[in-house]
Automatic annotation (TrEMBL), chain A:
SUPFAM superfamilies: ABC transporter involved in vitamin B12 uptake, BtuC. Keywords: Cell membrane, Membrane, Transmembrane, Transmembrane helix, Transport. It is a multi-pass membrane protein. It comes from Roseinatronobacter alkalisoli. It is found in: Cell membrane. It comes from the Bacteria. The keyword Cell membrane applies. Belongs to the ABC-3 integral membrane protein family. InterPro entries: ABC_BtuC-like (IPR037294), ABC_TroCD (IPR001626). The chain crosses the membrane at residues 12-33, 42-61, 67-85, 94-113, 133-166, 173-194, 200-220, 232-253, 259-280. This is Metal ABC transporter permease.
Automatic annotation (TrEMBL), chain B:
It is a multi-pass membrane protein. The chain crosses the membrane at residues 12-36, 69-88, 97-117, 123-140, 145-162, 189-215, 227-248, 260-282. This is Metal ABC transporter permease. Residues 348-381 are annotated as: Disordered. It is found in: Cell membrane. The keyword Transmembrane helix applies. PANTHER family: ABC-TRANSPORTER METAL-BINDING PROTEIN (PTHR30477), METAL TRANSPORT SYSTEM MEMBRANE PROTEIN CT_069-RELATED (PTHR30477:SF3). InterPro entries: ABC_BtuC-like, ABC_TroCD. It comes from Roseinatronobacter alkalisoli. The keyword Membrane applies. Keywords: Cell membrane, Membrane, Transmembrane, Transmembrane helix, Transport. Its main location: membrane.
Length: 376, 381
């Protein structure tokens, strides 16, 4: 049964994607909340350099030596960028943009120079080959599983343990680093711990999805979850769930359209984000537009009531308390004036009497409240 | 030498060199504004976002037609900038998250489109891969006209709106208060950065284009503190890195242009960070050393002066141990001999003691008084 699952190629591809997505989303949630999302970009580009250097030094293309060695480059990128920014010769954003392209470029050149001996080429660096993860297998507890699945499984376990054990500390350091430091929780050490684990995850995910698509798994599902909830635990759970959903749906769409599996999985995270951006309850663009419309109508009703109240029982009443006056004096477009009158009528604020707009008792009460007058 | 001359006389190499220099100059010029406005990483997002556009242009034209490829890249780049703005303005997500989302999702879509083109096959799909890392040798003579046109248009816009761009780059709030259309100007700068990226795609590729925007500007910034020279210098560095990288890549088999150009530009940045006069790290170290020496000399003089005042004796000989106690540690011998050479202190003997002693000279008293900012007291009798 278990052997059958691990022997099935589609199951292995999806499992690899799910492991990448879940490990990345766990850490990504904290990176997005802390405003460090672009450090992922820097890390995932520069591990290319680390991977090739470790290979040149030790001959390992996978395994713990490779993962840790290459992950060091990721951390090195962050340290170098922060040092450069601290010299105040360049700003932080420029510092990031100077360090990682240099390391990435060095990595690509090393790959081209040693291209005959390395079985990774420049395309693999960028895209990964999730479709071929089942080619390299190891035997774990008597079951043959792909190397990528085994490595990523360990990485996911480590990330999960890190987040669960240090949940309280992570939460505090994310939302109030000053308080965390004052209470002795070492937010700086946590910062580097998160970035180290991100580097490790990036290296482990490298074969499967490549350097750049990995960024999508780190940033996009947590950002989507952030649009949907304001609870940290729910955000992390949602981010992991959205990642998994993106991997599964991405796999089948990729098969259907015969396109890159990793690319389609990453694209699906973008689809979830677009949906959340548009339709998130309360905060989505759609909800914002609706709220804006309602607020405008409410406001117009109040203006109308105030206008009628001001001119009530004055000589100008016959001229002012009409639909025409709203168009001519308040300079409302005719449709807006009509909509407002209808809305106010529906709310029992005004009525039509002798061709004039007059206030109902409820409308009078609203107007008095606007002008700060007590009821007589 | 003759080999080099042969190289320059070759038409292909001339084309490549001209193209690379033009692109470097263009991205250097526009990158200066991006770096000053702290939008360096926007260039990264926009260049990755150009990939789906490149693929779309390729699909629409049915082959590697530079015009449609560049138009597609520009369109998706502009779309990415719009989405960025929408996310930053309408949600509570931070700018870095918005950058990451746009960068990775657009790139992922580009990868999907890339595989669509590859499965359809066609001789041109190989040419498409050069857009990832750039291949200077793939530049055609006709491409030069397209790039030259983009470059001239950008130059004209920058010259026409020089004052406005300058104001927006340094103090956008003031510009807004003065009634300048800041949003329009910022959008204009972003559009031109997208143009520079589009123009640089062939040379450096989408992945490393950000470095060609940032590195020349960051290097130029170290050498000058006014915008005009900075933009010129940045363009020059960009042109130099581009030309150098293209030359190396064109003469070496199997080296993509992008990485070589980026490494050259990064080397220029490193040198600039180290030695740029007044700002560079070496200068900072020198200045810190001078400041340390000045403070050490000042403390030495003040101590001697204080002891002289306390003993009512302008020529009071201060013993080494006293100085050590007062200052925490003796100043290095070099500082003491420097003070002696400047005639501020003199070494004296105080028999029967055999340890070294120092006293302030008249000039030393004047210097110590000047340092402490107090008028010099009458010399005690």
């Amino acid at each position: 049964m278990i052997a059958a699952v691990f022997g099935s190629i589609p199951a292995m591809i999806i499992l690899t994607g799910v492991l990448v997505g879940a490990s990345a989303a766990l850490l990504g949630s904290f990176l997005v909340l802390r405003g460090n999302a672009m450090l992922t970009d820097a890390i995932s580009h520069s591990i290319v350099f680390g991977i090739i250097v470790v290979w040149l030094l030790t001959g390992h293309m996978s395994g713990p030596v490779q993962v840790l060695g290459a992950a060091l480059t990721g951390v090195l990128t962050v340290v170098l960028s922060e040092l450069l920014a601290r010299s105040r010769l360049v700003k932080m954003d420029a510092a990031i943009g100077l360090v990682f392209p240099a390391l990435f470029a060095a990595g690509v050149i090393l790959i081209s120079i040693h291209a005959r001996n390395v079985h990774i080429d420049v395309d693999t660096v960028l895209l990964g080959e999730i479709g071929f993860v089942w080619l390299h297998t190891v035997t774990v507890f008597g079951v043959r599983v792909p190397v990528a699945v085994a490595t990523l499984g360990v990485v996911l376990a480590v990330n999960l343990a890190f987040v669960l054990v240090l949940w309280k500390e992570l939460k505090l350091a994310t939302f109030d680093a000053g308080l965390a430091a004052a209470l002795g929780f070492l937010p700086g050490a946590l910062h580097y711990a998160i970035l180290t684990l991100t580097s490790v995850t990036a290296v482990a995910a490298f074969d499967a999805v490549g350097a750049i698509l990995f960024i999508a798994f780190v940033i996009v599902p947590p950002a989507t979850a952030y649009l949907l909830t304001r609870r940290l635990w729910l955000m992390v759970v949602l981010a992991v769930g959205l990642s998994v959903a993106a991997c599964v749906s991405g796999y089948f769409l990729a098969l259907r359209w015969n396109v890159s599996i990793g690319g389609m999985m990453a694209s699906m995270t973008g689809v979830w984000f677009a949906l959340a951006l548009l339709f998130a309850p309360g905060r989505g663009l759609f909800a914002q537009a609706l709220r804006w419309r309602t607020e405008r109508l409410d406001h117009d009703c109040r203006v109308l009531v105030a206008h009628l109240f001001t001119h009530e029982d004055t000589p100008a009443m016959a001229e002012e308390n009409t639909l025409r006056a709203l168009v001519d004096h308040l300079r409302w477009p005719e449709p807006r004036a009509r909509a407002t009158v209808l809305r106010a009528h529906d709310r029992d604020l005004i009525e039509r009497r002798d061709g004039l707009l007059t206030l109902r008792p409820k409308g009078t009460a609203v107007a008095r409240a606007i002008f700060g007058q007590r009821d007589h | 030498m003759t080999a080099l001359l042969d190289l320059f006389s070759s038409g292909i190499v001339r084309t490549v060199l001209m193209g690379a220099a033009m692109l470097g100059a263009l991205s250097g010029m526009l990158g200066a504004f991006a770096v000053l406005r702290r939008q360096s990483l926007l260039g990264d997002a926009l260049s990755h976002a150009a990939l789906p556009g490149v693929c779309l242009g390729f699909l629409v034209a049915g082959g590697r037609d530079l015009g449609s490829v560049l138009a597609g890249a520009f369109l998706t780049g502009a779309l990415a900038a719009l989405v960025m703005m929408l996310i930053v303005r309408r949600t509570t997500l931070k700018t870095d998250a918005a950058l990451g989302i746009v960068l990775s999702v657009f790139f992922a879509v580009g990868i999907v489109l890339l595989t669509v083109i590859q499965t359809r096959g066609g001789a041109g799909s190989l040419g498409l891969m050069t857009f990832l890392f750039g291949q200077a040798a793939a530049i055609l003579r006709s491409d030069l006209w397209v790039m030259g046109g983009i470059g001239l248009a950008a130059l004209a816009v920058v010259l026409a709106f020089w004052k406005e761009f300058k104001l927006v780059s340094f103090d956008a709030d003031f510009a807004r208060a003065q009634g300048f259309p800041v949003t329009m100007l910022e959008a204009g700068l972003t559009v031109m950065v997208a143009l520079a990226i589009v123009a640089g795609l062939q040379l450096v590729g989408v992945v490393l284009m950000v470095a060609l925007l940032i590195a020349p500007a960051a290097a130029a910034r170290q050498w000058t503190s006014s915008l005009g020279p900075m933009v010129l210098l940045s363009a020059a560095i960009g042109a130099g890195s581009g030309a150098g990288g293209a030359l190396i890549s064109a003469t070496t088999r199997g080296l993509a242009t992008g990485p070589v150009v980026v490494l050259i530009a990064t080397a220029v940045v490193l040198v600039s960070l180290l030695v740029a006069p007044g700002r560079g790290l070496l200068w900072q170290m020198l200045a810190a050393r001078r400041a340390r020496a000045r403070i050490s000399d000042g403390r030495m003089l003040a101590t001697l002066q204080g002891l002289a005042t306390a003993h009512d004796n302008a020529g009071y000989p201060v013993e080494q141990g006293m100085l050590q106690t007062a200052l925490g540690a003796m100043p290095p011998a070099r500082r003491i001999s420097s003070l002696e050479q400047r005639g501020l202190i003199r070494s004296v003997t105080h028999p029967p003691e055999t340890t070294p002693h120092w006293e302030l000279t008249d000039a030393g008293h004047a210097e110590a008084a000047a340092l402490s900012g107090q008028p010099r007291k009458e010399r005690p009798q």
